[in-house]
Structure formats: structure tokens, C-alpha cells
């Protein structure tokens, strides 16, 4: 199977999941998680019509961007972000999905104001409260939203999560449902600089469940590019 074939297969699964949930397939955005795949392979995914590319590491993003890997598709950052790398992403990425602290919000806002741009971001939620994992705890999200509301240069466009690895489908569905409820709660309250347009959840193993629970942005890597070889 080629990358193009894989993208088409994933699209079909997305369409089926959307229809089953009574939703329009076109409202669900497919982000190709491109980590560890070279520029040529990323270009194949873009040519096959993914809605965006999501990169995990700042250095890899900068290198592949210089090679034109993402040309023709919006570029997202989806990995763990350190404050000292923010300047490499602001104004370069269409969406920074993994913002999870007051310090990051402040740093992104400062850089965006300096460049005269508005940076779109998602807030990453650690929905299961796992130690050592990126993302703000669900109860901490309100403080970040209040801060975002008064920070120039940023626009919060929604939420993102990477739930724990679960053996059972019902278990992962529980985390996705909790995210959806949080998304709806936030959406009901008006704040400056905050709109809940995107709920980014679901990866190769579970994007169908995520869509059933209300995701409208899924991040798919290995189902498009094949298994990653971590020994390279
Ligand atoms: C790698 C990655 C994905 C995609 O994972 P697959 O299981 O390969 O689909 C999605 N989101 C994030 C944040 C990732 O790091």
C-alpha cells in the first residue's frame, strides 16, 4: 500500500465514522503525524490530500520545512514544546496544538506581537491526569483560558489530548467523552481570544472512537506512513 492508498483508506474510515455519528465527514480534519518521515514521504501525504501536517520536534520541523516538505498544507506542531523553542514556531505554524502552561502562552503571545501576527493554538489537556505527561490537568484549563483571554497575539482555537494507552475500547471512549464534555463546557462560555472550533483527538489506533465521541481533528501517523522504525 502506498502512502496515497493509506490516506484514502483512512479517509474512508473517517467518513464511515462521521456518518455513523450523524455528522458531515467534511467537518473532520485529517492531520498527518509526520514524525520520523522524510520530506519526500511527507510530500506524498500532502499530494494525497491530508488537511494538515503535524510535526513533533522543533528541529525536525525546521529542517523539513526548509526542504519544502509541507508545501501546500497547513503546518501544525503537535509535540512537547519547550519555552526556548517557541520563537522557531510562532508565525511559522498555522496551529500549535500542544500549549499547556501559562509560560508558553505568555512566550507565544510576546513573539506573535513582536512579529505582528496572531498565533492560533490549541490547549493540550492531560485528561487522565497521568504523571510525566504533557498537558494541563482538566481542572487547570480555566486558568489558562483566563490568561489567554488577556494575552495579545494568540487565539485559542480548541483543545487537544493524547489519552493513555488503553486495552479496552470502552476505556479510551471514556477519556474521549470527558474531553468532549470539557470542550462543550468551554464553548458555552464567552471569552476574548477563545473559540472552540477544534477538538483534536484520536490517532491511528483509535481515531474512529474519537470521532464517535465528537473529535473533529484526528492526528494519524502509522496508518498513513506505516510503522515507525525507532532503531534508525
Ligand atoms: C505520533 C503522534 C500521533 C500519531 O500516532 P500514530 O499512532 O502513529 O497514528 C498523534 N499525535 C501525536 C501527538 C503524536 O506524537
Strand portion, in percent? Answer: 15-25%
Distance between the termini: 22 Å
What's the name of the CATH homologous superfamily? Alanine racemase
Topology pattern, helix = H, strand = E: HEHEHEEHEHEHEHEH
Q: How many distinct helices?
A: 8
Tell me about the biggest sheet?
8 strands, parallel
Name the ligand types: pyridoxal-5'-phosphate
CATH architecture descriptor text = Alpha-Beta Barrel
CATH class: Alpha Beta
What is the helix content? Answer: 25-40%
Low-confidence region ranges: none
> How many structural domains in the coordinates?
1
User: Structural class, judged by helices and strands?
Assistant: alpha/beta
Instruction: State mean pLDDT (0 to 100 scale).
Output: 96
Number of separate strands: 8
Could you give the order of strands across the largest sheet? 7-6-5-4-3-2-1-8
Question: Helices, strands, pairings?
Answer:
Blueprint (H helix, E strand, L loop, with lengths): L2 H18 L8 E5 L5 H9 L4 E4 L2 H9 L8 E3 L17 E5 L2 H14 L3 E7 L15 H9 L4 E8 L7 H19 L6 E7 L6 H7 L3 E4 L1 H4 L7
Give a short overview.
The protein is built from 8 helices and 8 strands. With 232 residues, the protein is an alpha/beta fold. It has a single domain (3-225), classed as Alpha-Beta Barrel (TIM Barrel), CATH 3.20.20.
What keywords describe this structure?
alpha/beta, 232 residues
Describe the overall structure.
- The structure is a single chain.
- The protein has an eight-stranded parallel sheet with strand order 7-6-5-4-3-2-1-8.
- By secondary structure, it is an alpha/beta fold.
- The longest helix has 19 residues.
- The chain has a single domain, classed as Alpha-Beta Barrel (TIM Barrel), CATH 3.20.20.10.
- The site of pyridoxal-5'-phosphate has 14 residues, from strand 8 and helix 8.
Amino acid at each position: 500500500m502506498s502512502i496515497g492508498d493509506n490516506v484514502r483508506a483512512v479517509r474512508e474510515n473517517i467518513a464511515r465514522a462521521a456518518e455513523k455519528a450523524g455528522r458531515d465527514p467534511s467537518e473532520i480534519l485529517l492531520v498527518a503525524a509526520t514524525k520520523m518521515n522524510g520530506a519526500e514521504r511527507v510530500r506524498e501525504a500532502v499530494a494525497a490530500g491530508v488537511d494538515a501536517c503535524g510535526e513533533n520536534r522543533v528541529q525536525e520541523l525546521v529542517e523539513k520545512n526548509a526542504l519544502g516538505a509541507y508545501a501546500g498544507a497547513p503546518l501544525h506542531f503537535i509535540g512537547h514544546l519547550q519555552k526556548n523553542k517557541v520563537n522557531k514556531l510562532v508565525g511559522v505554524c498555522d496551529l500549535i496544538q500542544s500549549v499547556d502552561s501559562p509560560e508558553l502562552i505568555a512566550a507565544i503571545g510576546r513573539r506573535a506581537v513582536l512579529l505582528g501576527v496572531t498565533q492560533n493554538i490549541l490547549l493540550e489537556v492531560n485528561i487522565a491526569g497521568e504523571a510525566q505527561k504533557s498537558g494541563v490537568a482538566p481542572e487547570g484549563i480555566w486558568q489558562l483560558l483566563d490568561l489567554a483571554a488577556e494575552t495579545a497575539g494568540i487565539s485559542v482555537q480548541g483543545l487537544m489530548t493524547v489519552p493513555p494507552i488503553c486495552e479496552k475500547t470502552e476505556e479510551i471512549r471514556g477519556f474521549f467523552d470527558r474531553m468532549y464534555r470539557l470542550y462543550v463546557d468551554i464553548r458555552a462560555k464567552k471569552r476574548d481570544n477563545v473559540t472552540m472550533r477544534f477538538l483534536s483527538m484520536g490517532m491511528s489506533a483509535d481515531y474512529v472512537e474519537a470521532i464517535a465521541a465528537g473529535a473533529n481533528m484526528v492526528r494519524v501517523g502509522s496508518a498513513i506512513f506505516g510503522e515507525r522504525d525507532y532503531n534508525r
